[in-house]
């Protein structure tokens, strides 16, 4: 018999590995707009899956380890500070909206909110680190991109969640 803790640990590791893979692949995807900080947010597909099926502690575990791995693999220490703070707050907002306001917000809406929070936090932290308020000039562009990418990632996340539910691959275990 497989213990629940071991199964859950394995699920977390699988989701962390997939989130790292999605983040790493994203570093090779050219974007049409050369705006600092602009990205698709592919790893948030995994965050959405975790939010739907796992508890908050597991979601944070997945986000933190993805951010740490990507900082080590490709981005560096400044990116670690930016991605950890933005990733943590974004996942927290998404978790809150999913658990407390799912009837009001769809998964796409939750994803858009997460993308907006992520970009706003990164701009705030980057401006503090660099001591430059000019970074806030990027915010309108990043917010527009947040709505577009958040919708796109939310749509894919919604499809993934439906397929996982349909195939019975994961069951909700948020309370444990």
Helix and strand arrangement:
Elements: H1 4-26, H2 44-53, H3 56-75, H4 77-101, H5 107-130, H6 139-167
Helix pairs in contact: 1-2, 1-3, 2-4, 2-6, 3-4, 4-5, 5-6
Give me some keywords for this one.
176 residues, mainly alpha, Arp2/3 complex 21 kDa subunit ARPC3, globular
Provide an overview of this structure.
The chain is mainly α and 176 residues long. The radius of gyration is 16 Å and the shape is globular. Helix 1 packs antiparallel against helix 2 (44-53). It has a single domain, classed as Arp2/3 complex 21 kDa subunit ARPC3, CATH 1.10.1760. Helix content is 74%, strand content 0%. The two termini are 19 Å apart. The chain contains 6 helices and no strands.
Rg over CA atoms, rounded to whole Å, is: 16 Å
3D shape: globular
List low-pLDDT spans: none
Q: Sheet bearing the most strands, described?
A: none
What is the element string, with H for helices and E for strands? HHHHHH
How many strands appear in the DSSP assignment?
A: 0
Structural class: mainly alpha
CATH topology, anyone? Arp2/3 complex 21 kDa subunit ARPC3
Q: How many domain modules? A: 1
Q: What is the end-to-end distance? A: 19 Å
Question: What's the helical proportion of residues?
Answer: over 70%
**Tally of DSSP helical segments:** 6
Which architecture does the CATH hierarchy give at level 2?
Answer: Orthogonal Bundle
Give the percentage of residues in beta strands.
under 5%
CATH class: Mainly Alpha
Mean pLDDT: 88
